[in-house]
Amino acid sequence: MTDLPQTVKPSRPKRRASHFKSLLLKLYRIAVLVLIICLIRDYFVRLRVQGKAPIELQEVQKLLPSAASLQVDHSERRGLFVLNQDQETIGYAIRTSPVSDDIIGYCGPSDTLIVFTPQTDRIVGISIRSSGDTTSHVNDIRQNKYWMNLWKDYGWHEIVDVDLRSGEIEGVSGATMTSMGIAHAIAHRIRFSEQKTQADPPFQIRAKDAAIIAFCIGACLITFTRLKRIHWLRKLYKLTAMLYLGFWTGDLLAESLFAGWARYAVPWRTVSGLVALAAVAVLIPWTTRRNVYCQSICPHGTAQEFLGKVISPRSKWKIRPDIKRALRWIPPLLIGLILTIIFLRIPIDLAELEAFDAYLLTSAGIASIIIAVVGLVASLFVPQAYCHYGCPTGAIFEFVRSHGRADHFGRSDLVGGLFLLLAFVFNRYAEQIQQLLLS
Q1: What is the pLDDT of residues 5-15, one digit of tens each?
Q2: Domain extents in the chain
């Protein structure tokens, strides 16, 4: 009797090493994605805080001589932390522009620097950075030490409550309108930040959010339980998701959506269902190796799947391996283009680079419709053609997807690292790159 071949199991140290390598790759991929988002967020926060004429360290040093560096505050106060050489916070700086640019003194707005002590307690001093007002009036205010030092009697919250109409702060004689314009701009700037801080909407789950969350739960059940064996149920679920999420609500995940969230904030209080859908699309493949969103929820993926069954397998196209490898570069190239558009603020609608906007028939752009139609026609001859060779959003979900112990550092990981480097360069030098392109 011959011996049956036995499967040789890897030794425990090899299994541990394989598991550790897989864990490192998982952490690397999610870290790349998170860091790119943070770099986008940081860049646009700096733009909102600093505007076209950023506060320079030398300006702050005139009021706080020990200032060594400035750090952007990502809160709604939209200011700068002032740090000393030991990286300790010694002050807080804000400017009235662009928030208060609509407040005119005599004939124009003034951009004023205000520096506070730590925790925005008391004003250290103010400085008029620039002004569209009469030069002689602005010079009179700068030379009026009493009026300039008057602000040191106030703190952040005291300025919120100051009553400028009652004459609590008087204008400079001969430059009353200009000085009171500056006073109103300072008060408006701080009140604006306080209103933003206190204006967070309450958390709410609407019927639409509950429906999207139900679709997320349904996708997980169909993917991870015995329900996946009931084929008619899977088809019914996918068809329902396509009709509701695609044609009815248009709540699809796309690069335009993620770019908006990265620029500003994730609106988890008001669109909790869509945020939950995004979390499922990223975290489920990252932790379980199953791309739930692309396989079960995405309406465009479902439409391609159904159309792919119209033509018999014999009529399908066989793509040469070299052409297939070339086509797989389309989604990464689109991601690189999207990063360039975001950071350089090129006036191109990101929704026009993907097919998903086409499902909102009343507002769809021509480019989205063309991409969607071409993708659907191609799926008749090449299974899931758009998913494999044209979808940047799906490429991101596939990038973070874990492959278990057999995972290894591949081409997509290298490209992900290059995208992180590109985002870092744009974060630091986008303004200079824009000037070079325009010159």
Answers
A1: 555 555 667 67
A2: 56-198, 207-438
